[in-house]
Design goal:
Blueprint lengths: L2 E6 L6 H17 L4 E4 L26 H13 L2 E11 L2 E10 L4 E6 L5 E2 L2 E2 L14 E3 L2 E5 L8 H9 L4 E6 L2 E2 L5 H22 L2 E6 L1 E4 L9 E4 L3 E3 L5 E4 L6 E6 L3 H9 L2 H4 L15
Parallel strand pairs: 1-2, 2-3, 9-10, 10-12
Antiparallel strand pairs: 1-17, 3-4, 4-5, 6-7, 8-9, 11-14, 12-15, 13-14, 15-16
Length: about 290
Amino acid sequence: MPKIALIQHSCSDNPEQNRQLIEQNIIQAADNGAELVLLQELHNTIYFCQNEDASHFDLAETIPGPSTELFGHLAEQHQLVIVCSLFEKRARGLYHNTALVFDRSKTMAGIYRKMHIPDDPGYYEKYYFAPGDLGFEPIDTSLGKLGILICWDQWFPEAARIMALQGADILLYPTAIGWDPKDSPEQQQRQLDAWITVQRSHAIANGIFVAACNRTGFEKDHSGHSTGSLFWGNSFICGPQGEVLALADDQSETILSADIDFERIEQVRRIWPYFRDRRIGAYGDILKRYAD
């Protein structure tokens, strides 16, 4: 029964300082018995997508590069499966929002490139990232098949379902999502509840484990176009019936952990056989933009 750990933290505008903090937390998680560590989205830097600024492309890294060297070394030294997040420079002028998996080795077990790219006030990701081109393919590791999805992907049941149908044992969501400080407390609570609910629903609908690792803290929009983003934390881990196994608050920098029993997937799917009862011949309209 492996232990999974999520590292929730705030980010400074100093990437080296962020990496040092993450490294310390990964070592602590390993010392506490974790075998799988999930990091938050774009954890090396501030969330630069609050505005469109060409100088932010300087934050991108190649694969391999400094981050792959660091996290691969940590995975091998501490015998961990590590899921980390990177602003990937794939080629000149071509960038992705990419998650990387190391399986107790310096060698990457696989990567996932974010498929759903938002373009909203404070989340101008289409300016920076090309959509992923690797599809929804779980990554095989010594602990099981990991269905890696990233932030905006977490709102789409199609992505979760395909990962589950491809054999994923757990869905892992590196995330960077927050509140507009101008929103009312009621609106902020509705947004947070929706975010947790939709991901728990993926766990229930697919009989699968889900873990979402979000950042916390306030990050200023240096362009002045907005009041900045207050990242809401609330990283969590839930089981295949949507049961919450661990939940962080909205402010703490913390290592959130839970033991994962993958045998529960079989047990739950025997009593809730959604895969058996799917009417696959009747779902053609799902491939249309809108069924009018």
